[in-house]
Amino acid sequence: MEKQPRLLASQLLLKNSFFEVSLNGVLLTWKEIPTKKKRVSGGIHYPFKVGFCFPKFHRRGKGESGTSHSVSVSEILAVRELDVDSKTKDDGRWQKMPQKSTEAYPYAFTVSYVERAWQHRWRCSDVTFHCLEGALCQQWVQTIRGQLAALTSRPKHLLVYINPYGGKQQGKCIYEQKVAPLFTCASISTDVIVTEHANHARDHLRTEAELKQYDGVVCVGGDGMFSEIVHGLVSRTQRDNGVDQNSPEEKLVPCTLRIGIIPAGSTDCICYATVGINDPVTSALHIIVGDAQPMDVCSVHHNNTFLRYSVSLLGYGFYGDVLADSERKRWMGPARYDFSGFKTFLTHHYYEGTVSFLPATDILGTPRDKTRCRAGCFICQHNGQLYSEDAPEICKTDPDVSDSEYEGGWRVIRGKFLAINAASMSCACPRSPKGLSPAAHLADGTTDLILVRKCSRFNFLRHLLRHTSKYDQFDMTFVEVHRVRRFHFTPRHCQSDSELDLRENGKRLFSQICRDHPACSCSPAYSSWNCDGEILPHAAIEVGVHCQLIKLFARGIEEQPVFEDLANPCAI
Ligand SMILES: CCCCCCCCCCCCC/C=C/[C@@H](O)[C@H](COP(=O)(O)O)NC(C)=O
Ligand SMILES: Nc1ncnc2c1ncn2[C@@H]1O[C@H](COP(=O)(O)OP(=O)(O)O)[C@@H](O)[C@H]1O
Ligand SMILES: [Ca+2]
């Protein structure tokens, strides 16, 4: 096969203007040639001259010499030659072209590329260049294709799971109308499974799927569906490597396949916090360009028995109660969380228990930082390396808290809590764009443990509302936050091993008591844990963070200085 040059430059026609079009292996650039200088090079290409430095991302500008655009080759989705025969056809696109141009420049190719739109959205744009000669047109197509083929991080074959009942039950339609056409455009082949029941995707991944043939797994659904994929992939990887998930101390083996999330759920917090928006087209484009974002995963155990993994929120008290209540209202769709949230806020239950945790003192960053985890995050890179070197788990003690004790580097806090939340990442979502722990990191090997102690309804409301404003939700006397590597929780009235199953017995018991005593303002002894949108069957749990156990087709939220909220920490 003829070797294609890496550098290519020609004068080509775009709409009704001539452009200097060049490709240098990194960027495709087209720059308008001022009208009076318009001429046709007749397809001669010449060595590319780099006279100025292009910015990293696609950019459009208008200088004295006309508009100029540049697109990173890594963000080109596809290139296709326009069929010469079709050019004579009477289709709308060609009708808009002046007759003279189409006749004079009968060969054309179209480049589809990523364009950045508002609020972290990505869109697919097309640009069509017209040439005088077929050979030149083909050379452009071949050269661009060659450079795309050299991008080894791009997936070619994907396994797709669709939850048809997630969110507003639009999963199938979203995939077919918005995502599949983009995959086809980028020559990605897929095997699609529409799930027939809960845990279908998890069990298929864990036992049946022939994973070797795929470059990634895509889930179309919400956080619960993503959680299924994580459980399937992580369990499969541990089984294949002979690792016992039941041992809380075991170091888990990272998964090699990346996971893509096409948001079609109710909260979509994992998608939102890793891409910056819950938008199916944006997510599809991140998959196509082959992005990779490592992520921490928490393992949750009860008495040395594995319960579940968590990637976003582990919440006891408020968020556990919201989830437990909302599960009975699935028919409401995403609005069930607003309804149950309001109801749970009014019940204002607190729960007694002991939280012990191993602070992550040997890392960069704290939960009160003003800096945020963003694309290319330095803290995640730094702490990730720290963990990969098997750093010893020795932590300094902090002598500053009256009701806490130290036990071998662990801190122990007993109290009455309205909420205990562990956020392994910010948990930003459309309801709270800054999230439960705005400074948490996606891949630093820690989780932010937020303890909200018993306080008045008014104060709790202030705390909740601060999740939706620029004010610091941790800057309140009844709230504390710790960046930890492990933690345990034991409810005060903890039962022995043959402990009651919370869902079956505990809830019934306490709701019964309260129904029998409607005037009683006491709180039930147990809440439940909300683990990425699933209820855990036990209240007493042990949690450990596994640094960068999985990878997503994402890159973290890209900086957008214009939209950045430089929060003023003044309290209301
Ligand atoms: C009175 C105003 C209150 C505003 C409080 C806003 C805080 C919102 C923070 C939400 C953090 C959600 C973390 C993600 C949890 C998901 O895993 C879970 C399951 O999501 P899914 O149904 O699978 O999409 N959703 C919920 C609400 O528990
Ligand atoms: N075909 C199916 N039928 C019923 N439940 C399913 C199906 N596929 C997946 N699920 C379950 O639906 C739950 C919610 O899915 P998810 O996609 O997260 O939507 P939502 O964000 O609305 O909760 C998940 O726990 C998942 O296990
Ligand atoms: Ca983390």
From TrEMBL:
PROSITE patterns: DAGK. It holds the Pfam family PH_CERK. GO terms for molecular function: ceramide kinase activity. InterPro entries: ATP-NAD_kinase_N, CERK_C, CERK_PH, Diacylglycerol_kinase_cat_dom, Lipid_Phosphate_FormReg, NAD/diacylglycerol_kinase_sf. SMART domains: DAGKc. One of its GO terms (biological process) is ceramide metabolic process. GO terms for cellular component: membrane. It comes from the Eukaryota. Residues 153-304 form the DAGKc domain. PANTHER family: CERAMIDE KINASE, SPHINGOSINE KINASE. This is DAGKc domain-containing protein.
